[in-house]
Amino acid sequence: MPKNLRVLIFSFTSLILILLIAYTITSYFNFFRTSKTVINTNAYSNLRQMDNFKSPYNPKIKFSDRRISEIHDVSLSILDGTSITDAPMILKSQRYYIPLDFISKKLNYNVDNSKGSLSLSNNSNIISLTEDSYEKNSKKGHLRGHLINYKNTFYISISDIEKLFDLIAVFDFQNKKINLIQDEVTAPEKSSIPSSDKFALMRFEDFGCGYTNIVDRNQTKIKIMSNLLYSNGMKFHVSWMPRFIVPSSNFDNDLLTKDNITNVGFVDILDYMINKGGEIGLHGYSHQSGNTASGTGEEMSKDVNNTEAETRAVIEKGIDTASALNIPISYYESPHYRETMEQKKIISEYFQFIYEPYDYSKKDNVYKPDDIHLFVPTPLGRISDPVSDTQRIIDKFNEGNPDILKSFYYHPSIEIEYIDFDTNDNKLNIRYNPDSPLQRIVKALINARYNTLHIDELKDK
């Protein structure tokens, strides 16, 4: 073969080979670039600040600055029912903590800190911990109470123990005892609802540490409700009132100043709901004014806290409480939707998502007043009568009118009447009436092929 021909063939072959390699590399990177941009908004929830919105307010009270105190009068029971009265325990931001080594030993985990990072392991699980995050069997998440180094000992909160070790804490306020028992609820391996473009939003309303929520059994029932939603792959919202005031009863429960086991149990509920698919939002600060009780009174209107300074004070006190307790918040809902347009503008400086109608001429679907904010109404209303209102909302699901957002709210105090339980044999034995409003709503959503979303996922809809 002539030399020139051999050179030509070699050059042509080399060119083809280079083009094939370049195509393969380009395809490889394009595949992963595409994969990163395809996000299933029905598969996860996030509590992050949106990229195009940043509140100008920096909380005055931070979780990291909160004091630590030692607790000596609360006992534990871990799986076997035996009371443990000598476990070291501390309190920070309405969370009880016990030593990591102590709980790990009780649950047969080995603790390894030899490489400068904390690792827990047994025959089934490997857990890595940082100050504020964890990784368990390749699944990552945030610690609700953070890991605290107190007197050269690492302490972990009860709510993080629940999450990491698949336990549920049942509080006994009268005897100042916490039973940690097996939490048998699991998330579905795949969504209970087939692929669908229909979506709904649900919200627990007027949720504060007062009335029914200061009863230990009722706090456990809230966890059982959360487990119902979690086990069916459903997301939900919790409109939280950080301070609960009932002037006629001389009751003023400020979570920043009243350290007690009742408030610890309540914050543990908030943590538990977050871990089970809930997003927390501020529902005012105390949802009252003057002699009215929390949940019934106004807090922003043309007549109440109507100056700019007063409006900002209400918003900022709520944000400060959330920051101090390390409760992430993703939206704001004003009490009874009675704020003025000027007060709405002020709220919009602090929050991107406002869970209420922009005005009553735009009350049936999401309204976007600008390129950043979303106002999200609840056109299906609330469940007041457990029978008729539940059926009315189910009928609205089945109508499927795309011009009406399938969004409703529910006071969980109604649902607790349908739940009973005991902890015999160190198990959470639940008796949950299938005719309860929430049970019926869950079944209806599944049958009508609705996915549930968080409010911050609506930005992509």
Q: Could you please describe the fold and organization of this structure?
A:
The protein starts with a helix and ends in a 9-residue tail after the last strand. The radius of gyration is 26 Å and the shape is globular. Helix 4 (216-231) runs parallel beside helix 5, helix 6 packs parallel to helix 7 (341-350) and helix 8 (388-399) packs parallel to helix 10 (437-447). Mean pLDDT is 89; it is low at 3-10 and 12-48. The protein folds into 2 domains: 63-179, Copper amine oxidase-like, N-terminal domain (Copper Amine Oxidase, Chain A, domain 1), CATH 3.30.457.10; 185-460, Glycoside hydrolase/deacetylase (TIM Barrel). Strand 13 and strand 14 form a beta hairpin. Helices cover 29% and strands 24% of the residues. The strands form 7 sheets. Strands 15, 16, 19, 20, 23, 24 and 27 form a 7-stranded parallel beta sheet that branches. Strands 1-4-5-12-11 form a 5-stranded antiparallel beta sheet. Strands 6-7-8-9-10 form a 5-stranded antiparallel beta sheet, covered by helices on one side. With 461 residues, it is of the alpha/beta class. Keywords: Membrane, Transmembrane, Transmembrane helix. InterPro entries: DUF2334, Glyco_hydro/deAcase_b/a-brl. The chain crosses the membrane at residues 7-29.
